[in-house]
Amino acid sequence: MSDRNFDGLRDVQLWRTFLAAYRHGSVSAAARALGVAQSSVTVHLQALEGIVGAPLFERHARGIRPTPGADELAGRIAGPLDALAEAVGARPDAPAAPVRLGGASEFLAAVGLPAVGPLVAGGMLLAVTTGLADDLLDRLRNGELDVVVSAVRPRGRTLPAMPLFDEEFALVASPQHGIRPSAELRASDLDEHPLLAYGHDLPILRRFWRHSFGIRLERKPALVAPDLRALAAAAVAGAGVTVLPTYLIAEELADGRLIELRPSDDPPINTVFLVRRPGPVAPAAALIERALREATTVL
Description:
The chain is α/β, with parallel strands linked by helices. The chain has helices at residues 12-24, 27-34, 38-52, 68-87, 105-121, 133-141, 203-213, 228-236, 250-255, 283-296, and strands at 57-60, 63-66, 99-103, 126-130, 147-150, 161-173, 196-197, 223-224, 242-245, 259-260, 269-276.
């Protein structure tokens, strides 16, 4: 530290402010949590940066992003400071802020929110953001989210990520199309049936065609809907053939509203990751992660 006479205990309020800013990802949110003015938070952070002799946060349009030095510092002081706060009957960043969870809307609706529902009923605060994986990971890097369920692994080592589950994909259609399910089904057997796609570039369909048929899909889709639940509903209604993750259509497959056209012991899969902000994990965020892991063990 630049101040060699500073023993770290002269003003615990500076550390409280730092930890609140680190956990909340913005000066305004930290000020609300601490019950002080934003200017006070700014002054405290500037004073602490002067003490440690290095920047602790990078400012950007949507808040503040911790530096690697801040990650290390938070990891060292969070436990002792929380213990001190508990010993005197307070919390360093009370009142509690919501855990900010991000993920694909389909997964959160079908699996994620039912899994964490009991935690919310027990008093946890939760704010959910849906969107595409790359956008959510950017928001996680910017400190705007705490935990993200991502269909892609984050690049680099900035964001801690662990595999959550493997989603399996199935080629499905309504029985009314009269397509006979077979492990030997050929792509040409589907030429007369409309394709239902998640995007104009056919990201899921192309992957299935390449993995299962060994060819590149060149057809144009009859329906494009950027929501897998909408594609499932359209398929049940007889609109055409599509590829969907099996966890999302388990009921439709079980009751026969959809049939798997090309059953296989080697279906296309995609690993879904649980990604968190760098630094120490808040207890509430850890509970969210555990609930998601438990819910996905049966998928």
